[in-house]
Design goal:
single chain; alpha/beta; Rossmann fold; Alpha-Beta Plaits; six-stranded mixed β-sheet; four-stranded antiparallel β-sheet; 14 strands; globular; disordered C terminus
Length: about 300
């Protein structure tokens, strides 16, 4: 569907300090209505602080956050009805059943109770709905967290590391729920350190390092950055002299290795040409492997010290 150009969420020179520790350095960022925005970064980079500030669990030390043009620090309690928040760790009393937990939150959010069975079915907990939570595995508890988050439809969903403790079935159901609600124009802001979450779900991706948003990319540009920094490892059956020169002429950059085993980088459209050039030079390819870049490589090569995005 077509997304709105409305700037639904705006961070204006937002900073957050905890005593003498600056968790988030000045942030200027706009998120559009209907957009899915992912914040990626290592642990301790400031992702959760931003999510929790947007949920009004923290308030800015400096600057402000606007939602629909209103400063959320001054907003009325009605603001809370705009969003649904899924924290990083779910804590649920063990003496309640899954149905009781979800029913409680449905009542708090003014949602029709017929939605309870529907959402329990969606997260694959319908058959276990009347079991006590203390009998559940960790992944099942996280799926209750999903049910609570999505039992009522909000305008904005805030998800802090939503796949961190989910079992594979829970991850599948989460992605289905987000996809379904995105089609209705809902807005998502989520924090993660897992690349695949952003690559599957986000429209735009912000990279956070040490409290600084060092870059903002579309999903397509982010995929291109990963592809550009992906290394190809090749093992040959016999040595080929001047392998670096051969690859350079074919459009590749030798990263490491020798005449029989080496690693190179090249854009995806040139990788096959590089392999063919090596074979034309007398190389007999025994093995080929691709290695996506580490966080450190992505940060160093593409995002380090590039400043804020909007």
């Amino acid at each position: 569907m077509t997304r709105s150009d409305e700037r639904l969420i705006v961070f204006e020179n937002f900073e957050k300090w905890y005593g003498s520790i600056q968790a988030v350095k000045p942030l200027n960022l706009a998120i559009k209505a209907g957009e899915t925005f992912a914040m990626l970064g290592p642990n301790g980079s400031g992702k959760s602080t931003i999510i929790r500030s947007l949920a009004r669990l923290h308030f800015p030390t400096r600057g402000r956050i606007l939602v629909k043009g209103n400063d959320i620090s001054k907003a009325s309690r009605e603001y809370n009805a705009l969003f649904s928040f899924m924290p990083q760790r779910i804590s649920i009393p063990g003496y309640l059943t899954a149905r009781e937990v979800v029913t409680l939150f449905a009542k708090l959010r003014g949602t029709t109770l017929s939605r309870v069975d529907e959402i329990l079915e969606m997260v694959e907990l319908h058959d276990d709905a009347d079991r006590l939570v203390r009998e559940f595995s960790g992944g099942m508890v996280q799926r209750i967290g999903l049910a609570v988050t999505f039992v009522s439809e909000a305008e904005i969903y805030l998800l802090d590391e939503p796949t961190l403790n989910l079992d594979p079935l829970g991850v599948k159901r989460l992605r289905e729920l987000i996809t379904r609600l995105r089609e209705k124009g809902k807005t998502f802001v989520f924090a993660s350190h897992i690349l695949e979450d952003a690559l599957q779900l986000a429209d735009r991706i912000g990279i956070l390092v040490n409290g600084v948003m060092v870059g903002v990319s579309t999903r397509e540009d982010f995929k291109a950055a990963i592809a550009e920094e992906t290394s190809v490892r090749v093992t040959l059956a016999r040595p080929v002299d001047g392998i670096a020169s051969v690859m350079d002429k074919a459009g590749a950059r030798l990263v490491s290795g020798n005449s029989t085993s080496f690693s190179f980088k090249a854009t995806p459209d040139k990788r096959l040409s590089v392999i063919r050039a090596v074979e034309a030079a007398g190389g007999i390819v025994e093995e080929i492997h691709t290695d996506p870049p580490s966080w450190e490589t992505l940060l160093t090569e593409h995002y380090e010290m590039k400043g804020n995005g909007s």
